Amino acid sequence: MSEIIKAIIVGIVQGLTEFLPVSSSGHIVIAQELLNIKFDEKENLLFAIVLHFATALSTIVIFRKDILQIFKGLLQFKNNEEFQFSLKIILSMIPAALVGVLLKDTLEELFSNLLVVGCMLLVTSGLLFFADRAKNTGRPVGFVDAFIIGLAQGCAALLPGLSRSGSTISTSILLGNDKSKAARFSFLMVLPLIFGATAKMFLDANEVGGLSVGSMPIGALVGGFLAAFVAGVVACKWMIELVKKAKLTYFAVYCLLMGLAVIFYSLF
User: Fold this and answer.
1) Could you give the number of structural domains in the chain?
2) How confident is the model at residue 124, as a pLDDT?
3) pTM listed for this prediction
């Protein structure tokens, strides 16, 4: 299988799993293992930056009106709904940022452990199962809710296989927030972190001598980017509708089966 096709497959996996509650980090680890993708350190950084930028761009496309309203609210310097929503987004970012700074070495070690991925997929399954059975309240996300949801996002950043969208949406719903508002908040709160993670990758690249395409075909970068962007747009729209219609149980079953399969594969 050519490197371009492998890159497109990984791009699709990244785009879909960034928004679907099945853990993008866990599935990327699984995809790279199964496809036997082996780039050097500089190539891996460049590929990761391209895929992250593609999913960030898909988020901007879907939520462009919401993002524009948030910026308008901030620039007006008024204590309105848009301004408060922006503060909640910032508040939710704090736990994940602390995790990234304080636990960098632990993160790197865990993200190569397939057994951890499998176990955390089981945890994701449980969260989705219980969230799907919660009542839809119509209540918006509050400031305390935002911080707790941020803690869930921090845990997802620390533990591969624990879905970011799955844990944040489930936590929000279990706190009593409206399901559609929970999905919207979950997807918007990750946007600054995606750009932050991308910036950090650039800094890491400078430490190892800059970015490099190396032996990676240019077509692999382009194919991976386009695949991640298109898959991200589709998954984002799909996920919002699924949360509204209480269809998370399907993903709970998927995560359960996938988690058991990964655990079996890593042990035997």
Assistant:
1) 1
2) 92
3) 0.79
